[in-house]
Every structure is written in structure tokens, then in C-alpha cells.
């Protein structure tokens, strides 16, 4: 798998079905005792199938059954020739380092000073892992290093990586954008557990940076990595771990895992989910926002909902594209529509009033009805350590919606079609935020008047004098003792 990353091509393996479709077997007759199916695979069909391995990063290394007559790349293998001379190593890498797609990787023992474990090797750096292929490659190198140093398979051999996890946010020392995150327990109880190490199984774990780890994973890159986009200062709210410029994001996507199915929701459901978390479905305001989101899209295998929708005027039946933060998407504002989008349908067809962002970053308008589901991206404003006056900063921008009341008219058709169904438009029934605030302020202003009126009513009923309380407080200074006396209950003192 480590050598598949250059072209992202799917490749045939030697696993396929018998003609009777009752058994899977390897072409070399090896025992079929290990499987790595993609989620919801295999899907049994009426024709004989063969098994390929995905090359796409989001599903890298997972298997899928396909009709054997389809075309794909392939992987061949043969036994090593023990009599053949050893291959001459290339000069691309230092001794002990190995080349993969423009990067020289090495796993070296950690000496007395772990900080210089990599730089001692001709200025190498601690490794960053930017794809599943690099992760698989370094896993092989770590296991080889463990075996060479007589560390058995049951011993948790690990190698430091060049990254940290801080407050739920992962970053690399060299500021490369973290396209891959394989930390097993992302949130740790101990705040000092923030340096990242690679385990023998390919997973990552966090440790105190002063802990002892046997190895260091090192690299020398021929081509500079893609850097994280510059962002403004501020702290990401809990539950929104991915940094943007002014906002942080929570990206719920459909990856190749069993839990991904529940991530697919309708546009209206995504709007409600984000609002309940104190945020909103993503608004892309600038080309810089778009670039950051495209970096995060590499984790997803399908399109995700945007907070962009079409608001239709019921009188003219003309639509206006608006974001959920109440800004209008007009000709001069930033847009990244797929070619030919947004498309306008003819009479009788349901309008495509919701918008998705594809894995290539392009926008596409789709129908909001008929149970259309996608993953989604929630955004929430960053929290500075202090606001302009030294206090907490606001959690929303002025004028930004704090509820899920906004939304498109779901099911609207172009003139000549069937009727429409509201899915929570901005003018739907119910009290708005301003009306509720007015009621609260009015009640607060009336409270002093109510208290004053109550005082004079009670006083008038008692002949202008308030009744004496039946409970009194007494203190004997000579004995320095105190007592509470109830005149209606002689037994209570």
C-alpha cells in the first residue's frame, strides 16, 4: 500500500470468487484469513467478482469487490531470487533512509538527546505524515527497526513524529497542513500528553514530551509540503477542532468507516445540528476560506452541505442565493461554482435550492427534498483570550443568526409546477429574537412598580403599620450567647 500513493489509482489484487460464487480465494492458493473491506463491502452481485484495493487517500488500502471485466491497475508479486545480487541503492537518500514519492524517510534509534535524534543525520527533521501511504511506509520502517534492534512484536515499539496535539488541535512542527490524523485517543486527560508518536500498528498516540521512546521517525523532503493557511489569532471552541481564518470548523463527513453513515443528513438537519452547537453551516466568504476548506476536503469521500441556499420570492418566483449568516451571494462576491452551475430548471421541476461542495472544492446546487443527504461542515467564531475591553469575546458576529430559523423554501418548483413546503424560512411564525428581548426588558422595568404597589397595599390593610414579626433575635452580651425566639411557639427558642 505504501507505494500506491503517487497516482491514486485503484488496483486489482489476487483475490477473487469461485465460479459458483460461494468462496473467495487468492490466486496463489494462500489461506484467506485476513480482510480489509471498505465500509459496506463486499456487495454480492449476480456475476463473478474480483477484488481491488482503493488508491484514493480517504479509502487507501481498503478493498472493494468489482466485476472482473472492469478495468483497473494491478499489483504483481514474485518470490525473491536469493541468488540474485542485491540491488544497488539509489543516491537519493542518506544511508539508512528510504525514498517514497519525493521524501526520504528513516527510523533511527533515539540516543541520549531525543531533540537531535533526526538533525544528527545530516540535518534531517522529525517526520510529518501527510498521506495514508506515508503512514504505511513509516510503519514498515518502524517494524524493521524494531526487529533489527531485537524488540519483539509484543513490545510497544514507538517512534517520535514531528507534531503535537494541543487542546484538540493537531499541528506539525514545520507548519505543514495536517491532512492526516491517526491519533487513537485524540483528547487526553493529561494536558502534558501532547507529543505524537507512531506505534507499530500504524496508529498514533500522545505522550509527555519528556517520555522515553525508542525511535524517531525522520525525513528529508525534496518538495516543500503544503503549508497551513495563515489564520487570525484566537482559540477554537470545544467541538470545532479545525482552524480557519476567523472561524473554526467541525467537519462531519462520510469517510470509509462504519460510523460514517450517521454523518449523512439533510440540509435542514445539518442547519439544526450546527445551530444547536452554537454555530452555523459553513459560509465561504473569501478565496482564503475556500483554500482552507479544500485542504480539509481531502478527508472526505463525498460532497458536503454548505450554508448557501436559494431564497425564492413567492410573487416573482425569482431566487436569490443567500448564506445562513444572512449575506447575499452576488456577482461580485466570492463564488466557486462548478461549470454550468447553479443550473436553473424548467417548469414543473423541483428547484435545486440547496448547495453542496464537492471533494474538488466546486459548488453545486441540488434539490433539498426527496431525502437528499450529505455530510456537512459547521463553523463557529474563534474565541480570543480577551475581548476589546478585557472581557470574554462575543461568540457570534453582529447580525449572525443564533438559531436554526433561516433556510430555503423546500420543494419550491418553477412556475407551472406543483406547490411548495416551508422548511423554516426567515419569516416563519413565532417570536423573533428582538420581540423576546423586548418582552424581557418590559418585565424588568415593571418589577420596581409592582414591588412599590405591593408595599402600600399591605400597609393600608394593617392600619398604616406593618405587623410585627413573631420571630425575634435576642443576644445576652454578658454571656455572649444569642437566641432566636418564636412568640407563637413557646417550645422554640
TrEMBL record:
Output the Gene3D superfamilies linked to this UniProt entry.
Answer: Mannose-Binding Protein A, subunit A
Q: Which UniProt keywords apply?
A: Membrane, Receptor, Transmembrane, Transmembrane helix
Q: Which residues cross the membrane?
A: 435-458
Residue ranges constituting the C-type lectin domain according to the UniProt record: 12-77, 100-215, 248-368
Pfam families for this protein: Lectin_C (PF00059)
Family matches, as PANTHER family: MANNOSE, PHOSPHOLIPASE, LECTIN RECEPTOR RELATED
In Swiss-Prot or TrEMBL terms, this protein is called: Macrophage mannose receptor 1
Q: Which organism is it from?
A: Hypsibius exemplaris (Freshwater tardigrade)
Q: What is the lineage of its organism?
A: Eukaryota, Metazoa, Ecdysozoa, Tardigrada, Eutardigrada
